[in-house]
Amino acid sequence: MHDYRQPPDAERTMETSRIMRFTPSEVFESFRDPNLLSRWWGPNGFSNRFLKFDFRDGGEWHFIMVGPNGREYENESRFASVEDPGLVVIEHISLPKYVLVVLIEASDEGTRIIWRQTFENKKTRDNVANIVGDANEQNLDRMEGVLAELED
């Protein structure tokens, strides 16, 4: 069995982390519930249409991201591992290929999220690094916004 909590090869990986005021269960639910996930997944200005969403170990996730200009980006992924409430692992099968490991850990302030994306090789990581870093931060910003709306 693969231990996704172990840090991967650093030269192929981009990582960010953040403390959120929400509980680990609330953060996990923002992945489990396709209505919530579709509202925050992706960088600013993007929306999503989910075609298949099977949130379980080995479950398929097919969706179309729609950019601010209306361009559509088809995505095929698989949930490699799902552990409520501490871990979500997504294998992105479409290009660029990567494995996203999201660790969800309780902290004194709420929840610490570690968002770790490991690409198939260093070249791919280097080619997308200038986009992915900001996009991952925007993902987390959008997640926080959706969770904050649920409090109202």
Largest sheet geometry: 7 strands, antiparallel
Overall pLDDT level = 95
**Numbering strands along the chain, what is their spatial order in the largest sheet?**
1-7-6-5-4-3-2
Beta-strand portion reads 35-45%
Describe the overall structure.
The protein is of the alpha+beta class and 152 residues long. It has three helices and seven strands; from the N terminus they run βααββββββα. It has helices at residues 24-32, 34-40, 122-151; strands at residues 13-20, 47-53, 59-66, 72-83, 87-92, 98-107, 110-119. The protein starts with 12 loop residues before the first strand and ends with a helix.
Provide the fold topology:
Layout (H helix, E strand, L loop, with lengths): L12 E8 L3 H9 L1 H7 L6 E7 L5 E8 L5 E12 L3 E6 L5 E10 L2 E10 L2 H30 L1
Antiparallel strand pairs: 1-7, 2-3, 3-4, 4-5, 5-6, 6-7
Helix pairs in contact: 1-2, 2-3
Keywords for this structure?
40% strand, 152 residues
Task: Summarize this entry quickly.
The protein has helices spanning 24-32, 34-40, 122-151; strands at 13-20, 47-53, 59-66, 72-83, 87-92, 98-107, 110-119. It is an alpha+beta fold.
